[in-house]
Design a protein that fits this description.
mainly beta, six-stranded mixed β-sheet
């Protein structure tokens, strides 16, 4: 998985989205949380931004960091470590926000680092039922087998369901 410089992220996302539509493979944005690699379908990713000021919202779920203003649109921001119950020292990590759009509902996902874009043939993706880990299988798209190791593939539509109650 190649590291993408911030200046080329937008162009890379658009290119990968176009590639994903005309191929039997599925393209994912790969990121890290606590030294583990995760991915979300590129077609669900709207953009990647560096950490921005977030306003806390009282009485929300523990994984809701708060809300942020993204070009005059207020969006909720989830700490993906907390949502997935991933252990690690969050204070020492550089944070990015992956902005996903599900059914016109936009959510920000805090992650440690964005690693790049990867296309996986459908045959190299194991179904979520075979995954044995701490993450709820409801959130999983599958487990990607790559030459450089496994990637936990998340189902952004379930992870950021528009009808999920934040309070």
């Amino acid at each position: 998985v190649a590291k993408i410089p911030p200046s080329t992220v937008g162009a890379a996302l658009e290119s990968a989205k176009a590639h994903a539509k005309g191929d039997e493979s599925v393209t994912f944005l790969v990121f890290s949380l606590a030294n583990e690699r995760y991915g979300v379908e590129i077609t669900k990713v709207r953009e990647i931004i560096l950490m921005e000021p977030i306003t806390p919202v009282p009485n929300t779920h523990g994984f809701v960091v708060g809300v942020m203003n993204l070009r005059d649109q207020v969006i909720p921001v989830f700490d993906l470590r907390k949502k997935l119950r991933v252990a690690g020292n969050a204070a020492s990590e550089v944070r990015n926000i992956i902005v996903v759009e599900i059914e016109k509902s936009v959510t920000g996902l805090q992650v440690d680092d964005v690693n790049g874009i990867m296309a996986l043939p459908a045959g190299r993706i194991e179904p979520p039922q075979l995954f044995e880990g701490a993450i709820e299988t409801d959130y999983l798209y599958g487990l990607g087998n790559t030459d450089s190791g496994a990637v936990i593939l998340l189902d952004a539509a379930v992870l950021c369901a528009p009808d999920e109650i934040l309070f």
